[in-house]
């Protein structure tokens, strides 16, 4: 039994290295011409407002832009989104939830994000892998490592060029969600009580991979800070 387990572990490590190698190529810009921007933050921090503001700003500048979101995007990913967020599915197991998010993301990457980046477009996505590490890895207690591994596989190692983290330092921002009924995750007490703090924990742990934006500022100031960060990244490319 020990030999079987050891052999399986070696195979998994080999696969992981292959997929991580793909990600390294992506980070060097060897494969793609566009720029991939991800907006992260707990619910109610203003991700959609920022994404729409960036879209209109760069559209007016003449850039070719794709604005998308997670979970969702293409038809298959949107169908998975309905399952994930429906209040009819409260019995969903955390592992099922994590795998469905990864499946939705895999389709999103292959059908929307990669083609746009290959065409030299700017892609703005509301949420990406970081959200799964927070929600499923920490709040659902599945562990950051396992959730990161399935998402490395799902995305082929595709990493954002810049991740804008909308930080809300004064506590929970769920009370800012007033224009719609809460979905399955938003109405889950365990999520509501833990996700804001878990965003802070993971963001502090991986601060070098994030660009922190104070989301308590007025909308204009938040957008201005985001544009400044993106322009800095574009200048370095």
List the helices and strands and how they pair.
Elements: H1 2-27, E1 35-40, H2 47-60, E2 65-69, H3 75-85, H4 94-118, E3 122-126, H5 129-139, H6 144-155, E4 162-167, H7 189-205, E5 211-214, H8 219-236
Parallel strand pairs: 1-3, 1-4, 2-3, 4-5
Number of domains: 1
* Class of secondary structure makeup: alpha/beta
Query: Got a strand count?
Result: 5
Give the overall shape.
globular
CA-to-CA gap between the ends?
Answer: 50 Å
Oligomer: single chain
Description:
By secondary structure, the chain is α/β, with parallel strands linked by helices. It contains eight helices and five strands; from the N terminus they run αβαβααβααβαβα. The chain has a five-stranded parallel beta sheet, with helices on both faces. It is globular, with a radius of gyration of 18 Å. The N and C termini lie far apart (50 Å). Phosphorylation of dTMP to form dTDP in both de novo and salvage pathways of dTTP synthesis.
What is the gist of this entry?
The protein contains 8 helices and 5 strands, in the order αβαβααβααβαβα. With 237 residues, it is of the alpha/beta class. Strands 2-3-1-4-5 form a 5-stranded parallel beta sheet, with helices on both faces.
Key attributes of the depicted protein:
single chain; 237 residues; alpha/beta; Rossmann fold; five-stranded parallel β-sheet; globular
């Amino acid at each position: 039994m020990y030999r079987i387990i050891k052999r399986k572990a070696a195979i998994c490590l080999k696969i992981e290295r292959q997929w991580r190698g793909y990600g390294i190529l992506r980070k060097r810009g060897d494969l793609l011409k566009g720029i991939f921007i991800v907006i992260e933050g707990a619910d109610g921090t203003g991700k959609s407002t920022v994404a729409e503001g960036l879209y209109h700003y760069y559209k007016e500048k003449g850039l070719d832009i794709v604005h998308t979101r997670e979970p969702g995007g293409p038809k298959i990913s949107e169908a998975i989104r309905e399952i994930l967020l429906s209040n009819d599915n409260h019995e969903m197991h955390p592992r099922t939830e994590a795998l469905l998010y990864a499946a939705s993301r895999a389709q999103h990457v292959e059908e929307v994000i990669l083609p746009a980046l290959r065409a030299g477009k700017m892609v703005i996505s509301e949420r990406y892998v970081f959200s799964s590490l927070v929600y499923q890895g920490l709040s659902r207690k599945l562990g950051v490592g396992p959730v990161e591994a399935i998402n490395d596989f799902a995305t082929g190692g595709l990493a954002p060029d810049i991740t804008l983290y909308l930080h809300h330092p004064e506590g929970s921002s769920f009370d800012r969600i007033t224009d719609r009924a809460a979905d399955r995750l938003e109405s889950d007490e365990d999520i509501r009580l833990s996700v804001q703090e878990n965003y802070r924990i993971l963001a502090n742990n991986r601060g070098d991979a994030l660009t922190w934006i104070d989301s308590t500022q007025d909308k204009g100031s938040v957008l201005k800070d985001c544009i400044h960060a993106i322009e800095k990244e574009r200048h370095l490319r």
